[in-house]
Amino acid sequence: MSKRILYIVLSVALAIYAGAASAQQLSLGQLSQYLNQLQTAQGGFTQINQDGTLSTGQIYIKRPGRIRFEYNPPNAALVMAGGGQLAVFDPRSNVGPDRYPLSQTPLSIILDANVDLGRDRMVTDIASDGTSTTITAQDPDNPQYGNIKLVFTANPIELRQWIITDEFGTETTVILNDLVSGGAIRDIQFNIVSEMRQRGF
Question: How many whole angstroms separate alpha carbon 74 and alpha carbon 56?
Fold first, then answer.
């Protein structure tokens, strides 16, 4: 095969691949619609921490504004959001959870009542490898709060993982396992004050 013919064949192959990849890239409108329709969901998760350690557990989502991470032993920690706050329960602590305004964390982007990824400066990067679409999003008014990188697959659209980079540059990866949308999840599971009472705080 001559060099010219080989060049043409490779060019066509690359064009076909690029076309397939772009066809699989999901739009910001599609992703916003998916998140807004995701009212409740639950499943397993694997968390990869900045230092390379792994944690596993169960995740519960009830939009807007509520999420719960129950970690498996030996971790036994609990992270939950509700009532506009994010609380981190450390089983070794006897002074109650650390609490932060949810609006000052990247999780607020996907838990917002009306997710609009097309908002100006909300998404800072979008890429596709032909099977998944990855976006990096931040609060456009407060980029100092960090960002969240979301990975979606298509047909059907599903959120598969996210990577949160906090205000200090610390990265935490959460890989979702068998996330099932729909179904009833009790509000009490996101009640920080109730959880504090149960733990004697």
Answer: 10
Instruction: Kindly report, residue by residue over 37-86, the tens digit of the pLDDT.
Output: 999 999 999 999 999 999 999 999 999 999 999 999 988 899 999 999 99
Task: State pTM to two decimals.
Answer: 0.84
State both tokens at 104. 């000052």
CA end-to-end distance (rounded Å), the chain: 77
Asked whether the beta carbons of 39 and 62 are under 8 A apart, the reply is yes
Q: Which long-range contacts (CB under 8 A, 24 or more apart) does 143-151 make?
A: 145/104, 145/105, 145/106, 146/105, 146/106, 147/106, 148/106, 148/107, 148/109, 148/110, 150/31, 150/110
Backbone angles phi, psi at 86, to 5 degrees: -115, 125
Task: Evaluate whether 76 touches 93 at the Cβ level (below 8 Å).
Answer: no
Non-local CB neighbours of 57 within 8 Å, separated by 6+ positions? 44, 45, 47, 69, 70, 71, 72, 75
Assigned token pair, 170: 């610390």
Contact by Cβ (8 Å): 83, 196: no
Cα separation, 174 vs 97, whole angstroms: 21
Whole-number Cα distances in Å, 64 to 25, 116, 127, 135, 139? 26, 13, 26, 20, 16
User: Which tokens belong to 94?
Assistant: 């006897």
